[in-house]
Write a structure and sequence with these properties.
The chain is mostly beta strands and 83 residues long. The chain is built from no helices and eight strands. It is globular and about 25 Å long.
């Protein structure tokens, strides 16, 4: 699945990933390869990018939205910091 993480200032990440774990406003959730179409609000918290089954990156995000469509996840966040 293709993942893009965008902030108002810049593109933070673009690449093929296994999945992404996100802090939703009602609790954390995970989007994996070939996920059904989805739009969801994100709260403050930790986002984990699963590059494959054994490698990942973590970011702290300030809230935003995620859109999943045609095996592409676009994460729009107000701010993000790599951990």
């Amino acid at each position: 699945m293709l993942l893009e993480i965008l902030t108002p200032e810049r593109k933070l990440y673009t690449g093929e990933v296994y999945g992404v774990q996100l802090p939703g406003t009602d609790g954390s959730f995970e989007v994996l390869d070939r996920h059904a179409p989805l739009i969801a609000a994100l709260g403050k918290g930790k986002m984990k990018v699963l590059k494959d089954k054994s490698h990942s990156e973590q970011y702290t995000i300030e809230g935003g939205f995620v859109e999943v469509l045609n095996n592409k996840a676009t994460v729009l966040v107000e701010g993000a910091t790599a951990l």
